[in-house]
Amino acid sequence: MKILPAASGVGVTTLYANVFLLSTAGKRLLVDTGTVQHAPAFWELLRAFDPDAVLVTHSHVDHAGNAFLAARAGYNVLAHPLEFDRLTGVSHELPYPAGQPRIGEMVSRLHPKVPASRLQAVDAGETVYGWEVVPLSGHTDGQIGLRRGGVLLAADALLSSADGAHLPRAAYNWNNEIALQTLKDIAQMDLHTILPSHGGALTLEQVQARAVRDDG
Protein backbone atom coordinates (compact mmCIF):
# COMPACT_ATOMS: atom_id res chain seq x y z
CA MET A 1 0.00 0.00 0.00
CA LYS A 2 1.43 3.35 -1.00
CA ILE A 3 1.60 5.99 1.72
CA LEU A 4 2.31 9.47 0.47
CA PRO A 5 3.96 12.18 2.59
CA ALA A 6 1.56 15.09 3.06
CA ALA A 7 3.33 17.23 5.67
CA SER A 8 5.92 16.88 8.39
CA GLY A 9 5.04 13.86 10.51
CA VAL A 10 1.97 13.09 8.39
CA GLY A 11 1.32 10.30 5.92
CA VAL A 12 -1.88 9.76 3.98
CA THR A 13 -3.48 6.92 2.08
CA THR A 14 -6.98 6.79 0.62
CA LEU A 15 -9.57 4.15 1.48
CA TYR A 16 -12.37 6.10 -0.25
CA ALA A 17 -11.83 8.82 2.39
CA ASN A 18 -8.30 9.86 3.33
CA VAL A 19 -6.71 8.02 6.24
CA PHE A 20 -3.94 9.91 8.02
CA LEU A 21 -0.96 8.44 9.82
CA LEU A 22 0.59 10.79 12.35
CA SER A 23 3.97 10.19 13.95
CA THR A 24 4.75 12.78 16.61
CA ALA A 25 6.16 12.86 20.13
CA GLY A 26 7.23 9.23 19.81
CA LYS A 27 3.62 8.16 19.33
CA ARG A 28 1.60 6.99 16.34
CA LEU A 29 -2.00 8.02 15.72
CA LEU A 30 -4.17 6.72 12.88
CA VAL A 31 -6.95 9.15 11.91
CA ASP A 32 -10.11 7.77 10.25
CA THR A 33 -10.55 4.28 8.87
CA GLY A 34 -12.13 4.42 5.41
CA THR A 35 -15.08 2.38 4.19
CA VAL A 36 -15.82 -1.20 5.13
CA GLN A 37 -15.34 -2.11 1.46
CA HIS A 38 -11.64 -1.39 2.09
CA ALA A 39 -11.47 -3.59 5.20
CA PRO A 40 -8.62 -5.84 3.96
CA ALA A 41 -6.47 -2.84 3.04
CA PHE A 42 -7.27 -1.14 6.34
CA TRP A 43 -6.34 -4.28 8.26
CA GLU A 44 -2.95 -4.41 6.51
CA LEU A 45 -2.41 -0.72 7.25
CA LEU A 46 -3.37 -1.16 10.90
CA ARG A 47 -0.94 -4.05 11.35
CA ALA A 48 1.90 -2.26 9.55
CA PHE A 49 1.51 1.10 11.29
CA ASP A 50 0.52 -0.33 14.71
CA PRO A 51 -0.77 2.97 16.14
CA ASP A 52 -0.98 3.85 19.80
CA ALA A 53 -4.62 4.79 19.15
CA VAL A 54 -7.15 5.33 16.35
CA LEU A 55 -9.09 8.59 16.13
CA VAL A 56 -12.33 8.96 14.18
CA THR A 57 -13.13 12.52 13.13
CA HIS A 58 -16.85 11.75 12.83
CA SER A 59 -19.21 8.82 12.60
CA HIS A 60 -20.12 8.70 8.91
CA VAL A 61 -19.42 5.28 7.44
CA ASP A 62 -16.79 6.46 4.95
CA HIS A 63 -14.68 7.59 7.92
CA ALA A 64 -15.61 5.11 10.64
CA GLY A 65 -16.38 2.08 8.49
CA ASN A 66 -13.44 0.03 9.77
CA ALA A 67 -13.27 1.38 13.32
CA PHE A 68 -14.77 -1.91 14.50
CA LEU A 69 -11.66 -3.71 13.21
CA ALA A 70 -9.41 -1.45 15.25
CA ALA A 71 -11.56 -2.12 18.31
CA ARG A 72 -11.45 -5.89 17.73
CA ALA A 73 -7.69 -5.70 17.48
CA GLY A 74 -7.54 -4.07 20.90
CA TYR A 75 -6.97 -0.44 19.92
CA ASN A 76 -8.82 2.38 21.64
CA VAL A 77 -11.02 4.43 19.29
CA LEU A 78 -11.03 8.14 20.08
CA ALA A 79 -13.96 10.36 19.08
CA HIS A 80 -16.10 13.23 20.30
CA PRO A 81 -18.87 12.06 22.68
CA LEU A 82 -21.58 13.43 20.36
CA GLU A 83 -20.52 10.78 17.83
CA PHE A 84 -20.73 7.85 20.24
CA ASP A 85 -24.36 6.86 19.61
CA ARG A 86 -23.78 6.49 15.88
CA LEU A 87 -20.46 4.71 16.35
CA THR A 88 -21.99 2.16 18.72
CA GLY A 89 -25.28 1.71 16.84
CA VAL A 90 -27.57 3.34 19.40
CA SER A 91 -28.48 5.75 16.58
CA HIS A 92 -28.49 5.07 12.84
CA GLU A 93 -28.73 8.60 11.45
CA LEU A 94 -26.95 8.85 8.11
CA PRO A 95 -27.56 11.69 5.64
CA TYR A 96 -26.82 9.79 2.46
CA PRO A 97 -28.18 8.97 0.03
CA ALA A 98 -29.55 12.51 0.14
CA GLY A 99 -33.26 12.68 0.86
CA GLN A 100 -33.55 8.95 1.59
CA PRO A 101 -33.21 8.56 5.36
CA ARG A 102 -34.61 5.01 5.38
CA ILE A 103 -31.85 3.86 3.06
CA GLY A 104 -29.30 5.75 5.13
CA GLU A 105 -30.53 3.99 8.26
CA MET A 106 -30.32 0.61 6.53
CA VAL A 107 -26.76 1.33 5.38
CA SER A 108 -25.80 2.25 8.93
CA ARG A 109 -27.36 -0.90 10.38
CA LEU A 110 -25.40 -3.06 7.94
CA HIS A 111 -22.09 -1.70 9.24
CA PRO A 112 -20.41 -3.36 12.24
CA LYS A 113 -20.17 -1.01 15.21
CA VAL A 114 -17.62 -0.15 17.88
CA PRO A 115 -18.20 -1.53 21.39
CA ALA A 116 -18.73 1.27 23.88
CA SER A 117 -15.96 -0.20 26.03
CA ARG A 118 -13.43 0.62 23.29
CA LEU A 119 -14.47 4.26 22.82
CA GLN A 120 -12.48 7.04 24.43
CA ALA A 121 -13.83 10.59 24.51
CA VAL A 122 -11.80 13.54 23.23
CA ASP A 123 -12.97 17.14 23.13
CA ALA A 124 -11.94 20.52 21.76
CA GLY A 125 -8.81 21.95 23.32
CA GLU A 126 -7.36 18.60 24.35
CA THR A 127 -4.04 17.42 22.96
CA VAL A 128 -3.57 13.98 21.47
CA TYR A 129 0.07 13.03 20.92
CA GLY A 130 1.07 16.61 20.19
CA TRP A 131 -1.99 17.48 18.06
CA GLU A 132 -4.66 19.90 19.29
CA VAL A 133 -8.26 18.72 18.97
CA VAL A 134 -10.27 21.35 17.05
CA PRO A 135 -14.09 21.54 16.92
CA LEU A 136 -15.37 21.37 13.33
CA SER A 137 -19.11 20.89 13.80
CA GLY A 138 -21.65 21.42 11.05
CA HIS A 139 -21.13 18.36 8.88
CA THR A 140 -21.98 16.41 12.03
CA ASP A 141 -22.63 17.75 15.51
CA GLY A 142 -19.46 16.25 16.97
CA GLN A 143 -16.98 16.41 14.10
CA ILE A 144 -13.43 17.22 15.17
CA GLY A 145 -10.11 17.84 13.45
CA LEU A 146 -6.49 18.03 14.55
CA ARG A 147 -4.08 20.97 14.33
CA ARG A 148 -0.33 21.19 14.77
CA GLY A 149 2.37 23.52 13.43
CA GLY A 150 0.21 25.24 10.82
CA VAL A 151 -1.34 21.98 9.56
CA LEU A 152 -5.04 21.19 10.04
CA LEU A 153 -6.65 17.83 9.44
CA ALA A 154 -10.05 19.19 8.50
CA ALA A 155 -12.20 16.04 8.20
CA ASP A 156 -15.32 16.93 6.15
CA ALA A 157 -15.43 20.55 7.24
CA LEU A 158 -14.01 21.15 3.77
CA LEU A 159 -13.69 19.18 0.55
CA SER A 160 -10.97 19.65 -2.03
CA SER A 161 -11.42 19.63 -5.79
CA ALA A 162 -9.79 21.07 -8.90
CA ASP A 163 -11.45 24.43 -8.28
CA GLY A 164 -10.31 24.69 -4.66
CA ALA A 165 -12.16 24.36 -1.37
CA HIS A 166 -15.87 23.87 -0.89
CA LEU A 167 -18.41 22.59 1.61
CA PRO A 168 -20.08 19.18 1.42
CA ARG A 169 -23.56 19.33 -0.10
CA ALA A 170 -26.06 20.91 2.26
CA ALA A 171 -28.11 17.70 2.31
CA TYR A 172 -25.12 15.89 3.82
CA ASN A 173 -24.56 18.41 6.61
CA TRP A 174 -26.18 18.12 10.03
CA ASN A 175 -26.45 21.94 10.07
CA ASN A 176 -25.35 23.80 6.96
CA GLU A 177 -25.23 27.23 8.64
CA ILE A 178 -22.89 25.89 11.31
CA ALA A 179 -20.83 24.15 8.60
CA LEU A 180 -20.43 27.48 6.81
CA GLN A 181 -19.39 29.20 10.03
CA THR A 182 -16.81 26.46 10.63
CA LEU A 183 -15.38 27.10 7.15
CA LYS A 184 -15.09 30.80 8.03
CA ASP A 185 -13.43 29.93 11.33
CA ILE A 186 -10.84 27.81 9.52
CA ALA A 187 -10.16 30.73 7.19
CA GLN A 188 -9.14 32.80 10.24
CA MET A 189 -6.73 30.20 11.67
CA ASP A 190 -2.95 30.51 11.47
CA LEU A 191 -2.41 27.70 8.96
CA HIS A 192 -0.39 26.93 5.86
CA THR A 193 -1.79 23.49 4.96
CA ILE A 194 -5.34 22.16 5.27
CA LEU A 195 -5.78 18.42 4.73
CA PRO A 196 -9.42 17.50 4.09
CA SER A 197 -10.68 13.94 4.21
CA HIS A 198 -11.62 14.00 0.51
CA GLY A 199 -9.19 15.33 -2.06
CA GLY A 200 -5.72 16.83 -1.81
CA ALA A 201 -4.15 19.48 0.37
CA LEU A 202 -5.52 23.02 0.38
CA THR A 203 -3.80 26.30 1.15
CA LEU A 204 -5.20 28.83 3.58
CA GLU A 205 -5.68 31.21 0.65
CA GLN A 206 -7.95 28.72 -1.09
CA VAL A 207 -10.07 28.35 2.04
CA GLN A 208 -10.23 32.12 2.51
CA ALA A 209 -11.34 32.57 -1.10
CA ARG A 210 -14.14 30.08 -0.55
CA ALA A 211 -15.19 31.74 2.71
CA VAL A 212 -15.46 35.13 0.98
CA ARG A 213 -17.41 33.64 -1.93
CA ASP A 214 -19.87 31.84 0.32
CA ASP A 215 -20.29 34.94 2.49
CA GLY A 216 -21.41 36.88 -0.54
TrEMBL record:
InterPro entries: Metallo-B-lactamas, NDM-1-like, RibonucZ/Hydroxyglut_hydro. Residues 16-198 form the Metallo-beta-lactamase domain. It comes from the Bacteria. This is Metallo-beta-lactamase domain-containing protein. It comes from Deinococcus xinjiangensis.
